[in-house]
User: Fold this.
Amino acid sequence: MLNNAAPQEDDLFIVVLFTSLFFFLLSGFVIYFVVVYRKKQKKNKEEQEHLRTAFKQEVLKTQLEVQEQTLNYVSTEIHDNITQVLSFIKLTLAKAASTSDGDNQTRLNESRELLSQTITDLRDLSKSLSFEHIASLGLVKTIEKEVDRINKSGIITVLFTKEGEDYSLGEQRELVLFRIFQETINNALKHASATQLKIIIQYQVDLFTLTLEDDGVGFSYEMLSEKQGSGLRNMQNRATLIGSVATITSALGKGCCIKVEINPLKTQFYINGGTHQNSIS
Amino acid sequence: MINIDSILTISATIIGMVSYRKLTIPFRILTISLLVSTLINLLSDYIFIPLYKNNAPLSHTETISHFVFYALIYYHFFKIRRLKQFVQLSLILVSTFFIVNALYLQPLSHVFPTNLIVITDILRFLFSVLLFRQMLLYPVEINIIKQSAFWYNTAILFYAATGFLNASLMNYYGKHLLGVQVKVYLFEYLWNGTNIIFDILFIIAILTDRKTQETTNA
Assistant:
């Protein structure tokens, strides 16, 4: 109980002691706050990072879907429309050749042969663009067919090697790998001025490796334009989307090597949005 | 007599004035508040003391001006609408209470506004805790040590939490017979100690705010 008696000097020290304790408590509270805040910051940063990654994956997935739809549409158009029209023209030419003679017949026959070649090329192109074709043939056969087609063209020499017993990586993964392969061919021809391209596919129990190596002019990352750089980044992003790692190494005058590695036993979550391994939507 | 506390307050004011343009709105308000506080203290020797022969009018004026400025700062810090409304409401209620208190309950001319001090300290303590809560709810990426709001809020937390305790103890011991030496010691330890921490934290807050602004603008 409070009374009006004058406090002793000893009381004063108790007061000072308690006040000091109070200060320490407040300081403790502030330190505790800082610790909790930093934890929250870290958690928040992780969540934002996760959201950013998820968003990026979603954008990539959509891009791939749109691209595949477009390619499929172009493929169908080539197969069902253009090649049909060309076949009709070929028949008409055959009819015209049968009623012609001499030089005209020879020219018409030559034109028919060229047309036949064009139809075959277009059919091959249609197949390489079509998702269904890759799905039915599988990665190795599709690449083999594409390699044959390119080698026939004589623009570049493609050497294809397969090591190990092949197994399915799933339609989506194989499709993405095939698109990476196509992009590499395109880069080798368009930018690298390569004369030779080596393709090595290695099947191991717990590791699949696709190596694409050209003998072109090569590049250093500093020299790449934004567009060229984005093409390579896009390739890496695609690889990430199927749970693989794409390593691109190059130096000036030393060609370029793209290595894509996948653990076939690992389930890929990003592309599926679930646990099923081989579906895109 | 100029003590460390006064030197630090004036230093904080000068730093705030020098970097005024580089500061965010809350810290511009803080600078103005420090300037007003310094001016009130300087003028009190020439106006309040000769007129009323005591420090009570100064205390009334200082308490309400501090509260208004600090509440405005919190108004800018709070992002949640309800908290902003709470600050607005408290400003209206405290201003009204200041008039009533100064006229009827604790007359401005000769009684210290302990009622007002208690209420404003409690409110400032509440604002401080609420801002800490808001900071935890919406953490930003900047390091906490580099956040001016954190230093300002810590200053207010210390000041509001200890201010009430200091005032009560000083009143209690002031009423009893204690040796001059002891009173001086107590005063230095409690009152000036709190004010020194308060001023140092304000200086850090202003400097941090200036630096953050410079980094953001760079």
Q: What stands out?
A: Chain B is about 80% helix and 0% strand. The two ends of chain B are 43 Å apart (CA to CA). Residues 130 and 201 of chain B are 19 Å apart (CA to CA). The interface with chain A takes residues 132, 135-136, 139-141, 144-145, 154, 157-158, 161-162, 165, 169, 172-173, 176-179, 182, 186, 189-190 of chain B (CB under 8 Å).
